[in-house]
Amino acid sequence: MRYAHTVERVRAAEESLMRRLPEGALMQRAAAGLAATCLQLLAGGAERGAGRRGRGSRRVYGSRVVLLVGSGDNGGDALFAGARLAARGVRVTAVLLAGERTHAAGSAALLGAGGVLTQDQAAGLAQLGRADLVVDGIVGIGGRGGLRDSALPYVRAAERAGVPVVAVDLPSGVDADTGEVAGAAVRATVTVTFGTHKPGLLVDPGAQYAGVVRLVEIGIEPGPAAVEALQHADVAGLLPRPTAESDKYRRGVVGIAAGSDRYPGAAVLAVSSALHGGAGAVRYAGPAAAEVVRAHPEVLVTQGGPKAAGRVQAWVVGPGLSDGPEAERTLEEALAAGVPVLVDADGLRLLARRGAAPRAELLLTPHAGEAVALLAGAGVEATREQVEGARIGYARRIAELYGCTVLLKGSTTVVAGPDPAAPVRVNPTGTPWLATAGSGDVLSGLAGSLLAAGLAPVDAGSVAAYLHGLAARTVGEGPVTAAEVAAALPAAWRGVTGAA
Ligand SMILES: NC(=O)C1=CN([C@@H]2O[C@H](COP(=O)(O)OP(=O)(O)OC[C@H]3O[C@@H](n4cnc5c(N)ncnc54)[C@H](OP(=O)(O)O)[C@@H]3O)[C@@H](O)[C@H]2O)[C@@H](O)CC1
Ligand SMILES: [K+]
Protein backbone atom coordinates (compact mmCIF):
# COMPACT_ATOMS: atom_id res chain seq x y z
CA MET A 1 0.00 0.00 0.00
CA ARG A 2 1.17 3.52 -0.69
CA TYR A 3 0.11 5.97 2.03
CA ALA A 4 -0.33 9.73 2.05
CA HIS A 5 -0.75 11.94 5.12
CA THR A 6 -2.23 15.34 5.76
CA VAL A 7 -0.05 18.38 6.38
CA GLU A 8 -1.31 18.44 9.98
CA ARG A 9 -0.01 14.91 10.61
CA VAL A 10 3.30 15.60 8.84
CA ARG A 11 3.85 18.71 10.96
CA ALA A 12 3.08 16.86 14.21
CA ALA A 13 5.41 13.99 13.28
CA GLU A 14 8.14 16.42 12.25
CA GLU A 15 7.93 18.29 15.56
CA SER A 16 8.10 15.11 17.56
CA LEU A 17 11.14 13.86 15.65
CA MET A 18 12.94 17.22 15.63
CA ARG A 19 12.90 17.28 19.42
CA ARG A 20 15.09 14.17 19.35
CA LEU A 21 17.50 15.25 16.59
CA PRO A 22 20.15 17.95 16.25
CA GLU A 23 18.87 21.17 14.67
CA GLY A 24 18.66 21.07 10.90
CA ALA A 25 19.11 17.28 10.68
CA LEU A 26 15.76 16.71 8.94
CA MET A 27 16.41 19.39 6.38
CA GLN A 28 19.80 17.83 5.62
CA ARG A 29 18.16 14.46 5.04
CA ALA A 30 15.66 16.10 2.71
CA ALA A 31 18.36 18.05 0.87
CA ALA A 32 20.52 14.96 0.43
CA GLY A 33 17.63 13.07 -1.18
CA LEU A 34 16.76 16.04 -3.36
CA ALA A 35 20.35 16.52 -4.53
CA ALA A 36 20.64 12.81 -5.36
CA THR A 37 17.67 13.02 -7.73
CA CYS A 38 19.01 16.20 -9.35
CA LEU A 39 22.41 14.59 -9.93
CA GLN A 40 20.79 11.57 -11.48
CA LEU A 41 18.76 13.74 -13.85
CA LEU A 42 21.78 15.83 -14.78
CA ALA A 43 23.74 12.68 -15.50
CA GLY A 44 21.00 11.63 -17.93
CA GLY A 45 18.95 9.33 -15.67
CA ALA A 46 15.92 7.42 -16.87
CA GLU A 47 13.43 10.05 -15.73
CA ARG A 48 15.09 12.86 -17.63
CA GLY A 49 12.58 14.94 -19.51
CA ALA A 50 12.86 16.22 -23.04
CA GLY A 51 16.20 17.98 -22.61
CA ARG A 52 16.95 20.26 -25.51
CA ARG A 53 20.65 20.23 -24.82
CA GLY A 54 21.11 16.57 -25.58
CA ARG A 55 24.45 14.98 -24.80
CA GLY A 56 26.10 18.18 -23.64
CA SER A 57 24.11 18.29 -20.40
CA ARG A 58 24.79 14.70 -19.49
CA ARG A 59 27.83 15.80 -17.57
CA VAL A 60 27.21 16.93 -14.04
CA TYR A 61 30.34 19.06 -13.74
CA GLY A 62 29.74 22.46 -15.29
CA SER A 63 26.03 21.94 -15.84
CA ARG A 64 23.67 24.74 -14.82
CA VAL A 65 20.96 24.48 -12.20
CA VAL A 66 18.55 27.25 -11.25
CA LEU A 67 16.80 27.12 -7.87
CA LEU A 68 13.50 28.98 -7.46
CA VAL A 69 13.50 29.81 -3.77
CA GLY A 70 10.53 31.01 -1.70
CA SER A 71 10.34 32.27 1.88
CA GLY A 72 10.15 29.05 3.88
CA ASP A 73 11.85 25.75 4.59
CA ASN A 74 10.88 24.48 1.14
CA GLY A 75 13.31 27.08 -0.20
CA GLY A 76 15.75 26.00 2.52
CA ASP A 77 15.72 22.45 1.18
CA ALA A 78 16.40 23.75 -2.31
CA LEU A 79 19.32 25.92 -1.11
CA PHE A 80 21.00 23.11 0.86
CA ALA A 81 20.54 20.71 -2.07
CA GLY A 82 21.99 23.44 -4.31
CA ALA A 83 25.02 23.62 -2.03
CA ARG A 84 25.54 19.89 -2.44
CA LEU A 85 25.30 20.23 -6.22
CA ALA A 86 27.70 23.19 -6.26
CA ALA A 87 30.17 21.09 -4.30
CA ARG A 88 30.06 18.63 -7.22
CA GLY A 89 30.95 21.34 -9.71
CA VAL A 90 27.43 22.29 -10.80
CA ARG A 91 26.91 26.00 -11.54
CA VAL A 92 24.01 26.82 -9.23
CA THR A 93 22.04 30.07 -9.24
CA ALA A 94 19.34 30.63 -6.64
CA VAL A 95 16.62 33.07 -7.67
CA LEU A 96 15.25 34.48 -4.43
CA LEU A 97 11.54 35.26 -4.64
CA ALA A 98 11.20 36.41 -1.03
CA GLY A 99 14.25 38.68 -0.57
CA GLU A 100 15.21 39.12 3.06
CA ARG A 101 12.91 36.33 4.20
CA THR A 102 14.98 33.65 2.47
CA HIS A 103 16.28 30.74 4.60
CA ALA A 104 19.49 32.27 5.99
CA ALA A 105 21.47 29.13 6.72
CA GLY A 106 20.55 27.69 3.32
CA SER A 107 21.70 30.86 1.54
CA ALA A 108 24.98 30.84 3.45
CA ALA A 109 25.55 27.17 2.59
CA LEU A 110 25.00 27.79 -1.12
CA LEU A 111 27.28 30.84 -1.17
CA GLY A 112 29.90 28.91 0.75
CA ALA A 113 29.83 26.13 -1.85
CA GLY A 114 30.33 28.61 -4.72
CA GLY A 115 26.70 29.15 -5.75
CA VAL A 116 25.19 32.49 -6.72
CA LEU A 117 22.14 34.29 -5.28
CA THR A 118 20.09 36.78 -7.24
CA GLN A 119 16.97 38.83 -6.68
CA ASP A 120 17.10 40.50 -10.05
CA GLN A 121 14.29 39.36 -12.32
CA ALA A 122 16.10 39.91 -15.61
CA ALA A 123 19.15 38.01 -14.34
CA GLY A 124 16.95 35.21 -13.01
CA LEU A 125 15.07 34.83 -16.29
CA ALA A 126 18.33 34.85 -18.25
CA GLN A 127 19.70 32.05 -16.07
CA LEU A 128 16.52 30.04 -16.58
CA GLY A 129 17.00 30.34 -20.33
CA ARG A 130 20.36 28.60 -19.99
CA ALA A 131 19.50 26.06 -17.30
CA ASP A 132 19.91 22.30 -17.59
CA LEU A 133 17.62 21.71 -14.64
CA VAL A 134 15.29 23.80 -12.48
CA VAL A 135 14.45 23.16 -8.83
CA ASP A 136 11.08 24.38 -7.55
CA GLY A 137 11.56 25.41 -3.92
CA ILE A 138 8.98 28.19 -4.06
CA VAL A 139 6.59 26.75 -1.53
CA GLY A 140 5.85 23.36 0.03
CA ILE A 141 3.39 22.17 2.65
CA GLY A 142 3.17 25.72 4.02
CA GLY A 143 1.51 26.89 0.80
CA ARG A 144 -1.96 28.34 0.48
CA GLY A 145 -3.72 28.95 -2.81
CA GLY A 146 -2.16 28.79 -6.26
CA LEU A 147 1.10 30.31 -7.38
CA ARG A 148 1.46 34.00 -6.65
CA ASP A 149 1.85 36.45 -9.53
CA SER A 150 5.45 37.23 -8.54
CA ALA A 151 6.42 33.59 -9.24
CA LEU A 152 4.65 33.28 -12.58
CA PRO A 153 7.32 34.74 -14.92
CA TYR A 154 9.93 32.33 -13.53
CA VAL A 155 7.65 29.31 -13.75
CA ARG A 156 6.74 30.18 -17.33
CA ALA A 157 10.41 30.66 -18.21
CA ALA A 158 11.22 27.24 -16.73
CA GLU A 159 8.46 25.69 -18.86
CA ARG A 160 9.82 27.42 -21.96
CA ALA A 161 13.31 26.12 -21.22
CA GLY A 162 12.03 22.58 -21.73
CA VAL A 163 14.41 21.09 -19.16
CA PRO A 164 13.59 18.81 -16.22
CA VAL A 165 11.90 20.53 -13.29
CA VAL A 166 12.32 18.95 -9.86
CA ALA A 167 9.66 19.95 -7.35
CA VAL A 168 10.71 20.06 -3.71
CA ASP A 169 8.17 18.15 -1.58
CA LEU A 170 5.32 19.05 -3.94
CA PRO A 171 4.84 21.22 -7.02
CA SER A 172 4.28 24.81 -5.89
CA GLY A 173 0.64 25.78 -6.41
CA VAL A 174 -0.75 22.30 -5.65
CA ASP A 175 -2.71 21.95 -2.42
CA ALA A 176 -0.93 19.25 -0.41
CA ASP A 177 -4.06 17.86 1.26
CA THR A 178 -6.52 17.91 -1.62
CA GLY A 179 -4.63 18.10 -4.93
CA GLU A 180 -6.56 21.24 -5.79
CA VAL A 181 -4.86 23.76 -8.08
CA ALA A 182 -6.18 27.28 -7.70
CA GLY A 183 -4.82 29.07 -10.76
CA ALA A 184 -1.32 28.12 -11.88
CA ALA A 185 1.08 25.51 -10.51
CA VAL A 186 4.55 24.23 -11.36
CA ARG A 187 4.64 21.28 -13.78
CA ALA A 188 7.30 18.97 -12.45
CA THR A 189 9.20 16.19 -14.18
CA VAL A 190 9.97 14.63 -10.80
CA THR A 191 8.67 15.49 -7.35
CA VAL A 192 10.92 14.57 -4.45
CA THR A 193 8.67 14.34 -1.42
CA PHE A 194 9.77 13.90 2.17
CA GLY A 195 8.69 11.51 4.91
CA THR A 196 5.42 10.40 3.31
CA HIS A 197 3.37 11.07 0.20
CA LYS A 198 1.00 14.02 0.33
CA PRO A 199 -2.60 13.35 -0.84
CA GLY A 200 -2.29 16.07 -3.46
CA LEU A 201 0.48 14.11 -5.21
CA LEU A 202 -1.74 11.07 -5.72
CA VAL A 203 -4.98 12.66 -6.87
CA ASP A 204 -5.71 14.86 -9.88
CA PRO A 205 -5.42 17.63 -10.69
CA GLY A 206 -2.34 17.75 -8.40
CA ALA A 207 -1.02 14.37 -9.54
CA GLN A 208 -0.84 15.64 -13.11
CA TYR A 209 1.57 18.35 -12.02
CA ALA A 210 3.78 16.07 -9.91
CA GLY A 211 5.35 13.92 -12.64
CA VAL A 212 7.23 10.95 -11.22
CA VAL A 213 7.02 11.01 -7.42
CA ARG A 214 10.02 9.92 -5.37
CA LEU A 215 9.71 9.43 -1.64
CA VAL A 216 12.72 10.26 0.53
CA GLU A 217 12.49 8.67 3.97
CA ILE A 218 13.46 11.13 6.69
CA GLY A 219 12.34 9.06 9.68
CA ILE A 220 9.02 10.70 10.58
CA GLU A 221 6.11 8.54 11.77
CA PRO A 222 2.95 10.38 10.79
CA GLY A 223 0.38 7.82 12.03
CA PRO A 224 -2.93 7.06 10.28
CA ALA A 225 -3.04 7.91 6.57
CA ALA A 226 -5.62 10.17 4.92
CA VAL A 227 -5.24 8.54 1.54
CA GLU A 228 -3.97 5.17 0.38
CA ALA A 229 -3.29 3.65 -3.02
CA LEU A 230 -3.40 -0.10 -3.62
CA GLN A 231 -0.34 -1.79 -5.11
CA HIS A 232 -0.15 -5.17 -6.89
CA ALA A 233 0.41 -7.15 -3.69
CA ASP A 234 -2.59 -5.56 -1.94
CA VAL A 235 -4.85 -6.36 -4.89
CA ALA A 236 -3.56 -9.92 -5.09
CA GLY A 237 -4.37 -10.32 -1.38
CA LEU A 238 -7.92 -9.05 -1.84
CA LEU A 239 -8.88 -10.94 -5.02
CA PRO A 240 -11.01 -14.02 -4.36
CA ARG A 241 -9.38 -17.38 -5.09
CA PRO A 242 -11.67 -20.33 -5.67
CA THR A 243 -10.84 -23.47 -3.66
CA ALA A 244 -11.48 -27.11 -4.46
CA GLU A 245 -14.85 -26.90 -2.65
CA SER A 246 -16.05 -23.77 -4.46
CA ASP A 247 -19.22 -24.07 -6.47
CA LYS A 248 -20.78 -21.20 -8.40
CA TYR A 249 -22.80 -20.01 -5.38
CA ARG A 250 -19.80 -19.93 -3.10
CA ARG A 251 -17.84 -18.01 -5.73
CA GLY A 252 -20.72 -15.55 -5.91
CA VAL A 253 -23.61 -14.99 -8.26
CA VAL A 254 -24.00 -11.42 -9.46
CA GLY A 255 -27.22 -9.98 -10.82
CA ILE A 256 -27.10 -7.31 -13.51
CA ALA A 257 -30.12 -5.04 -13.95
CA ALA A 258 -29.03 -2.84 -16.81
CA GLY A 259 -29.83 -1.85 -20.38
CA SER A 260 -33.05 -0.80 -21.99
CA ASP A 261 -34.63 -0.97 -25.41
CA ARG A 262 -32.66 2.17 -26.19
CA TYR A 263 -29.36 1.05 -24.63
CA PRO A 264 -29.01 -2.74 -24.84
CA GLY A 265 -25.23 -2.43 -25.25
CA ALA A 266 -24.73 -1.29 -21.64
CA ALA A 267 -26.25 -4.58 -20.47
CA VAL A 268 -24.01 -6.66 -22.73
CA LEU A 269 -20.87 -4.83 -21.57
CA ALA A 270 -21.71 -5.00 -17.85
CA VAL A 271 -22.53 -8.71 -18.14
CA SER A 272 -19.39 -9.40 -20.13
CA SER A 273 -17.27 -7.68 -17.53
CA ALA A 274 -19.04 -9.47 -14.66
CA LEU A 275 -18.30 -12.82 -16.34
CA HIS A 276 -14.63 -11.85 -16.62
CA GLY A 277 -14.62 -10.52 -13.06
CA GLY A 278 -14.55 -13.85 -11.26
CA ALA A 279 -18.24 -14.38 -10.42
CA GLY A 280 -19.42 -18.00 -10.30
CA ALA A 281 -22.45 -17.07 -12.39
CA VAL A 282 -24.23 -14.02 -13.76
CA ARG A 283 -27.98 -13.43 -13.80
CA TYR A 284 -29.44 -10.73 -16.00
CA ALA A 285 -32.77 -8.99 -15.48
CA GLY A 286 -34.15 -6.55 -18.03
CA PRO A 287 -35.30 -5.78 -21.55
CA ALA A 288 -31.95 -6.63 -23.21
CA ALA A 289 -32.22 -10.32 -22.27
CA ALA A 290 -32.14 -11.50 -25.88
CA GLU A 291 -29.01 -9.48 -26.73
CA VAL A 292 -27.30 -10.63 -23.55
CA VAL A 293 -27.93 -14.31 -24.10
CA ARG A 294 -26.85 -14.04 -27.73
CA ALA A 295 -23.53 -12.55 -26.65
CA HIS A 296 -23.14 -14.74 -23.53
CA PRO A 297 -25.10 -18.01 -23.61
CA GLU A 298 -23.95 -18.93 -20.08
CA VAL A 299 -25.98 -16.10 -18.49
CA LEU A 300 -29.35 -16.83 -16.82
CA VAL A 301 -31.74 -14.17 -18.08
CA THR A 302 -35.22 -12.86 -17.34
CA GLN A 303 -37.17 -10.13 -19.10
CA GLY A 304 -38.60 -9.11 -15.71
CA GLY A 305 -37.05 -7.14 -12.88
CA PRO A 306 -34.58 -8.23 -10.20
CA LYS A 307 -37.39 -9.87 -8.17
CA ALA A 308 -37.98 -12.34 -10.98
CA ALA A 309 -34.31 -13.18 -11.41
CA GLY A 310 -33.65 -15.62 -8.58
CA ARG A 311 -31.02 -15.55 -5.85
CA VAL A 312 -27.85 -13.49 -6.21
CA GLN A 313 -25.18 -12.30 -3.77
CA ALA A 314 -25.02 -8.78 -5.19
CA TRP A 315 -26.87 -6.58 -7.67
CA VAL A 316 -25.52 -4.12 -10.21
CA VAL A 317 -28.25 -1.71 -11.21
CA GLY A 318 -28.22 1.25 -13.53
CA PRO A 319 -26.05 1.14 -16.66
CA GLY A 320 -28.22 2.07 -19.66
CA LEU A 321 -31.34 1.65 -17.54
CA SER A 322 -32.93 4.80 -18.92
CA ASP A 323 -35.66 6.63 -17.03
CA GLY A 324 -39.33 6.07 -16.21
CA PRO A 325 -41.47 3.89 -13.93
CA GLU A 326 -39.94 0.60 -15.07
CA ALA A 327 -36.43 1.82 -14.31
CA GLU A 328 -37.62 3.06 -10.92
CA ARG A 329 -39.17 -0.32 -10.14
CA THR A 330 -35.94 -2.07 -11.14
CA LEU A 331 -33.95 0.07 -8.73
CA GLU A 332 -36.45 -0.51 -5.91
CA GLU A 333 -36.40 -4.27 -6.41
CA ALA A 334 -32.60 -4.41 -6.40
CA LEU A 335 -32.42 -2.27 -3.25
CA ALA A 336 -35.02 -4.51 -1.56
CA ALA A 337 -33.13 -7.73 -2.30
CA GLY A 338 -31.17 -7.60 0.96
CA VAL A 339 -27.75 -8.02 -0.70
CA PRO A 340 -24.99 -5.50 -1.52
CA VAL A 341 -25.99 -3.27 -4.42
CA LEU A 342 -23.85 -1.29 -6.84
CA VAL A 343 -25.73 1.65 -8.35
CA ASP A 344 -24.33 3.26 -11.48
CA ALA A 345 -25.26 5.63 -14.30
CA ASP A 346 -29.05 6.10 -14.75
CA GLY A 347 -29.57 4.28 -11.43
CA LEU A 348 -27.69 7.10 -9.70
CA ARG A 349 -29.99 9.78 -11.09
CA LEU A 350 -33.00 7.75 -9.94
CA LEU A 351 -31.39 7.30 -6.52
CA ALA A 352 -30.67 11.03 -6.30
CA ARG A 353 -34.37 11.73 -6.88
CA ARG A 354 -35.26 9.50 -3.93
CA GLY A 355 -32.79 11.44 -1.75
CA ALA A 356 -30.26 10.07 0.71
CA ALA A 357 -31.22 7.00 2.75
CA PRO A 358 -28.09 5.59 4.42
CA ARG A 359 -27.23 1.97 3.58
CA ALA A 360 -23.78 0.63 4.35
CA GLU A 361 -23.77 -2.16 1.74
CA LEU A 362 -24.40 0.25 -1.13
CA LEU A 363 -21.66 1.14 -3.62
CA LEU A 364 -22.32 4.19 -5.79
CA THR A 365 -20.11 4.73 -8.86
CA PRO A 366 -20.75 8.25 -10.18
CA HIS A 367 -18.67 10.30 -12.57
CA ALA A 368 -18.46 13.99 -11.75
CA GLY A 369 -21.79 14.84 -13.46
CA GLU A 370 -23.63 12.11 -11.57
CA ALA A 371 -21.91 13.18 -8.38
CA VAL A 372 -23.43 16.64 -8.88
CA ALA A 373 -26.88 15.01 -9.15
CA LEU A 374 -26.30 12.94 -5.99
CA LEU A 375 -25.19 16.03 -4.10
CA ALA A 376 -28.23 17.94 -5.33
CA GLY A 377 -30.43 15.03 -4.21
CA ALA A 378 -29.10 15.56 -0.71
CA GLY A 379 -29.52 19.34 -0.92
CA VAL A 380 -25.87 20.25 -1.68
CA GLU A 381 -25.09 22.50 -4.64
CA ALA A 382 -21.86 21.93 -6.54
CA THR A 383 -20.65 22.17 -10.11
CA ARG A 384 -18.92 19.51 -12.13
CA GLU A 385 -15.73 21.59 -12.14
CA GLN A 386 -15.79 21.85 -8.35
CA VAL A 387 -16.16 18.08 -8.01
CA GLU A 388 -13.35 17.43 -10.48
CA GLY A 389 -11.08 19.92 -8.72
CA ALA A 390 -11.59 18.46 -5.22
CA ARG A 391 -12.32 14.77 -5.71
CA ILE A 392 -11.36 13.49 -2.28
CA GLY A 393 -13.56 15.99 -0.46
CA TYR A 394 -16.60 15.43 -2.67
CA ALA A 395 -16.32 11.62 -2.62
CA ARG A 396 -16.20 11.80 1.18
CA ARG A 397 -19.13 14.19 1.24
CA ILE A 398 -21.39 11.93 -0.87
CA ALA A 399 -20.34 8.88 1.16
CA GLU A 400 -21.28 10.73 4.31
CA LEU A 401 -24.61 12.03 2.92
CA TYR A 402 -25.69 8.64 1.57
CA GLY A 403 -24.10 6.61 4.38
CA CYS A 404 -22.43 4.27 1.90
CA THR A 405 -19.35 3.76 -0.26
CA VAL A 406 -18.72 6.08 -3.20
CA LEU A 407 -16.41 5.42 -6.13
CA LEU A 408 -15.96 8.74 -7.92
CA LYS A 409 -14.77 8.01 -11.46
CA GLY A 410 -12.50 10.30 -13.42
CA SER A 411 -8.91 11.16 -14.20
CA THR A 412 -8.07 9.84 -10.71
CA THR A 413 -10.75 7.50 -9.43
CA VAL A 414 -11.24 7.76 -5.67
CA VAL A 415 -13.17 5.47 -3.34
CA ALA A 416 -14.53 6.74 -0.02
CA GLY A 417 -16.33 4.57 2.52
CA PRO A 418 -18.93 5.73 5.03
CA ASP A 419 -16.39 5.91 7.90
CA PRO A 420 -14.95 9.44 7.79
CA ALA A 421 -11.92 8.32 9.82
CA ALA A 422 -10.88 5.67 7.27
CA PRO A 423 -8.48 6.62 4.47
CA VAL A 424 -9.80 7.36 0.99
CA ARG A 425 -8.42 5.02 -1.68
CA VAL A 426 -7.08 6.58 -4.86
CA ASN A 427 -6.51 4.46 -7.93
CA PRO A 428 -2.98 4.50 -9.33
CA THR A 429 -3.62 2.57 -12.56
CA GLY A 430 -5.87 4.98 -14.46
CA THR A 431 -5.20 5.95 -18.04
CA PRO A 432 -6.87 8.70 -20.08
CA TRP A 433 -7.69 6.06 -22.75
CA LEU A 434 -10.34 4.70 -20.37
CA ALA A 435 -12.48 7.77 -20.97
CA THR A 436 -14.43 5.90 -23.64
CA ALA A 437 -18.07 4.93 -24.16
CA GLY A 438 -19.09 1.88 -22.12
CA SER A 439 -16.00 2.00 -19.91
CA GLY A 440 -18.17 2.68 -16.84
CA ASP A 441 -20.41 -0.32 -17.63
CA VAL A 442 -17.34 -2.54 -17.58
CA LEU A 443 -16.22 -1.12 -14.25
CA SER A 444 -19.68 -1.75 -12.77
CA GLY A 445 -19.89 -5.37 -13.89
CA LEU A 446 -16.46 -6.09 -12.50
CA ALA A 447 -17.06 -4.36 -9.16
CA GLY A 448 -20.42 -6.16 -8.90
CA SER A 449 -18.70 -9.51 -9.38
CA LEU A 450 -16.28 -8.69 -6.59
CA LEU A 451 -19.14 -7.61 -4.30
CA ALA A 452 -20.86 -10.93 -5.02
CA ALA A 453 -17.62 -12.73 -4.17
CA GLY A 454 -17.82 -11.16 -0.71
CA LEU A 455 -15.45 -8.18 -0.92
CA ALA A 456 -16.48 -5.19 1.17
CA PRO A 457 -17.71 -2.25 -0.96
CA VAL A 458 -14.51 -0.21 -0.53
CA ASP A 459 -12.38 -3.20 -1.55
CA ALA A 460 -14.69 -4.21 -4.41
CA GLY A 461 -14.66 -0.66 -5.81
CA SER A 462 -10.94 -0.01 -5.45
CA VAL A 463 -9.85 -3.44 -6.69
CA ALA A 464 -12.19 -3.11 -9.68
CA ALA A 465 -10.79 0.35 -10.53
CA TYR A 466 -7.26 -1.04 -10.26
CA LEU A 467 -7.89 -4.01 -12.57
CA HIS A 468 -9.94 -1.87 -14.96
CA GLY A 469 -6.98 0.51 -15.41
CA LEU A 470 -4.52 -2.35 -15.76
CA ALA A 471 -6.74 -4.08 -18.32
CA ALA A 472 -6.80 -0.93 -20.46
CA ARG A 473 -3.02 -0.76 -20.27
CA THR A 474 -2.79 -4.46 -21.11
CA VAL A 475 -4.61 -3.77 -24.37
CA GLY A 476 -1.86 -1.30 -25.17
CA GLU A 477 -0.96 2.37 -24.95
CA GLY A 478 -3.54 3.88 -27.31
CA PRO A 479 -7.27 3.84 -28.03
CA VAL A 480 -9.23 0.97 -26.47
CA THR A 481 -12.89 -0.01 -26.65
CA ALA A 482 -14.88 -0.98 -23.58
CA ALA A 483 -15.32 -4.50 -24.96
CA GLU A 484 -11.54 -4.85 -25.29
CA VAL A 485 -11.09 -3.71 -21.70
CA ALA A 486 -13.61 -6.32 -20.50
CA ALA A 487 -11.86 -9.02 -22.49
CA ALA A 488 -8.48 -8.01 -21.03
CA LEU A 489 -9.63 -8.29 -17.39
CA PRO A 490 -8.47 -11.91 -16.94
CA ALA A 491 -4.99 -10.99 -18.22
CA ALA A 492 -4.86 -8.04 -15.80
CA TRP A 493 -6.00 -10.34 -13.00
CA ARG A 494 -3.28 -12.87 -13.82
CA GLY A 495 -0.75 -10.06 -14.05
CA VAL A 496 -1.54 -9.10 -10.47
CA THR A 497 -1.82 -12.54 -8.88
CA GLY A 498 1.16 -13.86 -10.85
CA ALA A 499 3.37 -10.98 -9.72
CA ALA A 500 2.41 -11.26 -6.03
N1 LIG B 1 7.64 18.54 7.52
C1 LIG B 1 8.82 17.92 7.50
O1 LIG B 1 8.96 16.88 8.09
C2 LIG B 1 9.94 18.52 6.76
C3 LIG B 1 9.75 19.63 5.93
N2 LIG B 1 10.70 20.11 5.15
C4 LIG B 1 10.41 21.16 4.20
O2 LIG B 1 9.75 22.24 4.78
C5 LIG B 1 8.65 22.61 3.97
C6 LIG B 1 7.65 23.37 4.74
O3 LIG B 1 8.29 24.54 5.12
P1 LIG B 1 7.50 25.79 5.73
O4 LIG B 1 6.67 25.34 6.84
O5 LIG B 1 8.51 26.80 6.03
O6 LIG B 1 6.55 26.18 4.57
P2 LIG B 1 6.79 26.51 3.01
O7 LIG B 1 6.01 25.49 2.27
O8 LIG B 1 8.23 26.64 2.67
O9 LIG B 1 6.05 27.92 2.84
C7 LIG B 1 6.54 29.01 3.56
C8 LIG B 1 5.84 30.29 3.27
O10 LIG B 1 5.47 30.46 1.92
C9 LIG B 1 4.51 31.47 1.84
N3 LIG B 1 3.44 31.07 0.94
C10 LIG B 1 2.23 30.49 1.23
N4 LIG B 1 1.54 30.21 0.14
C11 LIG B 1 2.30 30.61 -0.89
C12 LIG B 1 2.11 30.58 -2.29
N5 LIG B 1 0.97 30.07 -2.83
N6 LIG B 1 3.08 31.06 -3.07
C13 LIG B 1 4.20 31.57 -2.55
N7 LIG B 1 4.45 31.62 -1.21
C14 LIG B 1 3.50 31.15 -0.40
C15 LIG B 1 4.01 31.71 3.21
O11 LIG B 1 4.51 32.91 3.72
P3 LIG B 1 3.79 34.34 3.45
O12 LIG B 1 4.47 34.88 2.23
O13 LIG B 1 2.33 34.09 3.23
O14 LIG B 1 4.08 35.15 4.65
C16 LIG B 1 4.55 30.51 3.96
O15 LIG B 1 4.72 30.77 5.32
C17 LIG B 1 8.20 21.30 3.40
O16 LIG B 1 7.36 21.40 2.29
C18 LIG B 1 9.53 20.66 3.09
O17 LIG B 1 10.01 21.13 1.84
C19 LIG B 1 12.03 19.49 5.11
O18 LIG B 1 12.98 20.47 5.24
C20 LIG B 1 12.31 18.46 6.15
C21 LIG B 1 11.27 17.89 6.92
K1 LIG C 1 7.85 23.16 -4.11
Describe this structure in words.
With 500 residues, the protein is α/β, with parallel strands linked by helices. The chain has 2 domains: 2-229, 3-Layer(aba) Sandwich (Rossmann fold), CATH 3.40.50.10260; 232-499, Ribokinase (UDP-N-acetylmuramoyl-L-alanine:D-glutamate ligase, 3-Layer(aba) Sandwich). It has 20 helices and 18 strands. Ligand NPW binds at residues 10, 14, 26-27, 30, 70-75, 77, 138-145, 147-148, 168-169, 194-195, 218, 220.
Q: How do the helices and strands line up, and which of them pair or pack?
A:
Layout: E1 2-4, H1 7-18, H2 25-42, E2 64-69, H3 73-87, E3 91-96, H4 104-112, E4 116-118, H5 121-130, E5 133-137, H6 152-161, E6 165-168, E7 190-194, H7 199-202, H8 206-210, E8 212-216, E9 227-229, H9 232-238, H10 248-251, E10 253-257, H11 264-276, E11 281-285, H12 289-295, E12 300-302, E13 314-317, H13 325-335, E14 341-344, H14 346-354, E15 362-365, H15 368-377, H16 384-389, H17 391-402, E16 405-408, E17 414-416, E18 424-426, H18 439-452, H19 457-475, H20 482-499
Parallel strand pairs: 2-3, 2-5, 3-4, 5-6, 6-7, 7-8, 9-18, 10-11, 10-13, 11-12, 13-14, 14-15, 15-16
Antiparallel strand pairs: 1-9, 16-17, 17-18
Helix pairs in contact: 2-3, 3-4, 5-6, 9-20, 11-12, 11-18, 11-20, 14-15, 18-19, 18-20, 19-20
Bound molecules: ligand NPW and potassium ion (K).
